[in-house]
Sequence to fold (112 residues):
Amino acid sequence: MLHDIVGNTVNNKEKSPVPFSVKLCSERAAFEVRIQRKILLNMDKVRQLFEAGHDPEIMVYTPHIIVLRSGKAETTLSKDGRMLIKKVANESEATQVALKILRTALTAAFKP
Fold:
């Protein structure tokens, strides 16, 4: 399903500043979130933003990925904006976690 940054479901014809899709991964162990446009995150800045906010909590940081925990949900955020979200009940919960993370992380995106 395609969503925009404020959480509205959109169809492929609507314009959205940052549309993304959420789908169950093939192993059914996590939801995959993909940004529908090319971005590149400054992972050091993303880390600083999450450290300042304290939620979600940073579990692991590398220059290429950050593993975050918000409540029970665990999210692996990649430098290109892709996410794997584990320990959520359904797509709706995964979407809410993705929105929370994207609202912060996208402020650290490099301009193309």
About this structure: The longest strand covers residues 30-35. Residues 91-105 form the longest helix (15 residues). The chain is about 25% helix and 35% strand.
